């Protein structure tokens, strides 16, 4: 399915999968919620440590993940609208966010 996606949607999908894989590696088990205390470690695993402050890395990770989710969700919501459905994909909302 992802091979037929627009390049921006494919890139967003890859970024979300990479973030989830880094989260699994950081936690040491399969979890799908990126909480605040894990953001620095996940950011480091994704190579976002180029910024001088750890908090900036976590903000960059949050921004990149939210943007990727928006691109991905918008694409599938557009497909659902074209098909006459309300929502085709709930995206990754369950695992992006903080507590």
Oligomer: single chain
Q: How much helicity do the residues have? A: 55-70%
Quantity of strands, as a count: 0
Rounded mean pLDDT is 76
Largest sheet: none
Note the beta-strand portion.
under 5%
Set out the fold topology.
Layout: H1 7-27, H2 36-45, H3 54-83
Helix pairs in contact: 1-2, 1-3, 2-3
Descriptive overview:
There is one protein chain. By secondary structure, the chain is mostly helical. Helix content is about 60%, strand content about 0%. The protein has helices at about 5-25, 35-45, 55-85. α1 packs across α2 and α1 packs across α3 (about 55-85). The protein is elongated. The N and C termini lie far apart (about 30 Å). The model has no long low-confidence stretch (mean pLDDT about 75).
In brief:
This protein is mainly α and 99 residues long.
Characteristics:
mainly alpha; 99 residues
């Amino acid at each position: 399915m992802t091979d037929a996606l627009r390049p921006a949607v494919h890139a967003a999908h890859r970024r979300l999968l990479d973030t989830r894989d880094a989260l699994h590696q950081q936690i040491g088990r399969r979890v799908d919620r990126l909480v605040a205390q894990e953001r620095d470690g996940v950011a480091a695993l994704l190579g976002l440590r180029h910024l001088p402050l750890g908090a900036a890395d976590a903000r960059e990770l949050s921004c990149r993940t939210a943007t990727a989710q928006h691109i991905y969700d918008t694409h599938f919501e557009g497909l659902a609208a074209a098909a006459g459905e309300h929502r085709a994909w709930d995206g990754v909302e369950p695992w992006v966010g903080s507590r």
